[in-house]
Design brief:
Elements (H helix, E strand, L loop, with lengths): L2 E8 L3 H21 L1 E10 L3 E4 L6 H5 L18 H7 L4 E4 L11 H10 L3 E4 L2 H17 L4 E2 L2 H4 L4 H6 L7 E7 L2 H11 L4 H10 L8 H4 L2 H15 L18 H9 L2 E11 L5 E11 L11 E8 L3 E8 L3 H19 L1
Parallel strand pairs: 1-2, 1-4, 4-5, 5-6
Antiparallel strand pairs: 2-3, 7-8, 7-10, 8-9, 10-11
Helix pairs in contact: 1-13, 3-4, 4-5, 5-11, 8-9
The structure holds NADP nicotinamide-adenine-dinucleotide phosphate.
Length: about 350
């Protein structure tokens, strides 16, 4: 028998809209290949308001809403009362995709707490809850017999957390180094091509790779949150932002790039962590000059990559997209599959 999961979408921007589109257009393929159907029964968003329909929201209608319109015309409200919807809507799974707060993870952290406490599983692409409270949230999920899944918080749909927790379990993880921000990697590549930093940032913005305010990308704080998520997931060690020295790429000039090239090296923004013999973890985010034989040196453009340093296998590297609406919606789908598998 095909199981149905009712889903509530919290935040209706790029990622959750795309998840809704995927459910609308490929729902029958999901049912055939994965053995479950998905029904969106609630949506909340600061712009659109809140809409709940236990029978299933008309996705054609919500996806057709024009900018400035709200859910009022569809029988919803213009205000979004996240707490009430998360605690009371007829939903098995909450897909949290509101904005990432790099300081404390709020209010997304509360969204996840409310959902888990109400016995609903959570999938999220939001780095905040995972970076600041993954352990607490997993424990809350366990107490309530549900799941907290956040694969998309590190490399979007590229499955680094499940790779580490699944096939690489027991491999003797010693550390990792990663290119975990596509925007900064793209900008460094443009500096190699002779561009100045301001011009490279402008181009990245025009191509939709960089936000209007690119501080989190070029300053490295986005990578630092991802390092926090990885360190907890791989080593069970909780680090605060202040524990991770941070240098972004703002100081990397075309002259430094040319000097690195003259030595046969490339600048890359590296988030990394190493676990010592005593179990202590040392982590950092900083630009590094990598020789051409380094597994991360050839990662170009907006692609991300993570190299695990392991006892049994030596270095294992995975590369793939680290952003993109469809790639990140897939991360949510992969979380839903994990939730389904855990029930089975
Ligand atoms: N897009 C990607 O490639 C990608 C990749 C990996 C991870 N992520 C993460 O996934 C999350 C969603 O990304 P996105 O690209 O979909 O962002 P987005 O397009 O900005 O969508 C977020 C939506 O949530 C709404 N929102 C913000 N705070 C809310 C709240 N408290 N309650 C209800 N709605 C709220 C926003 O409304 P306003 O616009 O009015 O604030 C916006 O409509 C972010 O945390 C992001 O860091 C994204």
């Amino acid at each position: 028998m095909t199981i149905n999961y009712n889903i509530a979408l919290i935040g209706f921007g790029n990622v959750n809209r795309t998840l809704a589109e995927v459910i609308r257009t490929t729902g029958s393929t999901i049912a055939r290949d994965l053995g479950f159907t998905l029904t969106v029964t609630a949506i909340t968003d600061l712009r659109f308001g809140a809409l709940v329909d236990a029978g299933g929201i008309d996705l054609d209608a919500v996806l057709a809403l024009a900018p400035g319109e709200t859910f009022v015309g569809l029988g919803g409200t213009a205000e979004c009362d996240n707490e009430t919807v998360i605690r009371t809507a007829p939903a098995d799974i909450i897909a949290e995709a509101t904005f990432t707060n790099p300081n404390n993870g709020q209010p997304a952290l509360d969204h996840v707490r409310w959902a888990l406490a109400a016995g609903r599983s959570v999938c999220t692409t939001n780095k905040g809850p995972a970076a600041f409270a993954a352990r607490e949230l997993r424990e809350l999920a366990r107490q309530n017999g549900v799941r907290f899944e956040y694969e998309g918080a590190v490399m979007s749909g590229t499955p680094v957390l499940r790779l580490a927790a699944g096939p690489l379990r027991g491999v003797g993880m010693r550390g990792f180094s990663g290119i975990l921000n596509g925007t900064s990697n793209y900008i460094l590549g443009r500096l190699e091509a002779g561009m100045g930093q301001a011009e490279a940032i402008r181009e990245a913005q025009e191509r939709g790779y960089a936000e209007a305010n690119p501080t989190a990308d070029i300053g490295g704080s986005d990578v630092r949150l991802k390092v926090m998520v990885l360190v907890e997931a791989l080593f069970g060690v909780v680090l605060a932002p202040a524990d991770i020295p941070l240098t972004g790429i703002t100081g990397i000039t075309p002259e430094l790039v040319a000097a690195a090239a003259a030595q046969g090296t490339k600048w890359k923004l590296i988030g990394q962590a190493v676990r010592g013999e005593d179990g202590r973890v040392t982590a950092s985010v900083a630009p590094q000059m990598l020789g051409s034989d380094h597994p991360l040196a050839g990662i170009t453009g907006v692609t991300n990559a993570l190299m695990f340093d392991t006892d049994f296998l030596g270095q294992v590297t995975i590369s793939g997209p680290g952003a993109g609406r469809r790639e990140t919606a897939y991360a949510l789908l992969s979380d839903i599959i994990a939730i389904h598998d855990s029930r089975a």
